[in-house]
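Morning!

As promised:
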Amino acid sequence: MTHIDKTSRIPLYLQLMDILINKMENEMGENEQLPSEREICQQYDLSRTTVRQAINELEKDGYIYKVHGKGTFVSPKKVNQELVKFYSFTEEMKKLGKVPISKVLSFDVLEADRKTSNKLLVADGSKVYCFSRLRIADDIPMMLETSFVPYDLFPGITKEDLEHTALYELFRNRFQTEITMAEELFMPVLTNMKEAKLLKMPPSLPSLRIERLTHGVDRVIEYTNTIARGDKFKYHVRLEN
Amino acid sequence: MTHIDKTSRIPLYLQLMDILINKMENEMGENEQLPSEREICQQYDLSRTTVRQAINELEKDGYIYKVHGKGTFVSPKKVNQELVKFYSFTEEMKKLGKVPISKVLSFDVLEADRKTSNKLLVADGSKVYCFSRLRIADDIPMMLETSFVPYDLFPGITKEDLEHTALYELFRNRFQTEITMAEELFMPVLTNMKEAKLLKMPPSLPSLRIERLTHGVDRVIEYTNTIARGDKFKYHVRLEN
């Protein structure tokens, strides 16, 4: 559809959304500014209410974003993460030609509390690493991760290691530990103020919480809670019958 | 952990969360009321700030929910949807011993707009069914779905059909059309007022938008946009290395 059909049974705002999506996908670039509401009203001979409804839906669907006092802009495309086989943030970002870095926000060796020991299948009170990392791609904060890793399997990891080496590379190269599989649990969440600030996003934007359990040959080797920015990622899965 | 250790490096609110989660999972039932903040402060000798932080985090993580003027309650467990093979709402709810029903909110035969025809891989303007269904399990609204289905493959489906028969049963039994696979795309969203009202949830609760493309032998047979309540579902995937 390239023009509004006022005789159609399809609501006008849906028709307008269709036209604008088409324009953004074929003629406009990421972060390019959209015409103002007033201009869109005039161009398509539509009411302010209709245009506003279309714009609001496009914003909610993540196609566009608003900057207060500046206008409305085309959202950058989301990273499409395939949920087929085991993936790592570092590898996925490199594949997309982005430069991934990890900022280690905290790094501790603790005694596992009940929740953590239940997840890692270690004894209550076992020594575990607990670290938080901000995952950044091309200077944009993408994910916030809090990980728990059994100390006995990987002794002597330092904060500096994590800053310079991908975790799974450390597992593989320094400790000869291969990953066999991972389980992930996906839940939508709102970030709290602290998370939102670190991720440089408004706290009202919905995001995904991903709980990952990574398995080695005979042990759980990692339990990670990730907040993945909802405006940066979409997750794709293929379900065979 | 069953008591607060004030000498531990683990923040007090995290310790309290751990204790409360353990209590809820082992000693309390769904929708059971938690003690008041004041009572929790006294029981564990903690400050109001610490207790409030733990309660807020538990609410954000979906373990508990608040009812204005009444108190705080244990959330019902989320449905754990395995993303392994093709699934249907009707079948999944039956497996859990719940009674699934579908309320058909709208039912139309339309000409496909560009977005829909792109998804269904049909010509622009082809006849398609467009219907919205509220999916309910044991009287609780769980999902809101808007589906597009090519008319030519499945002529003569009525609103009443959809109210009494699962869509995939219709495809299989009346039209001898087998599903080969489906693709799903997961994105976190906030529901709008209308969606929230239909789903009987606060609009500020994050939910999942799931875009499904269902494939038959040689055609796309369904394109559905689902809003799945974030407080009712979690999605589990297993990733082999």
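The longest strand of chain B covers residues 100-111.

Hope this helps with the figure draft.
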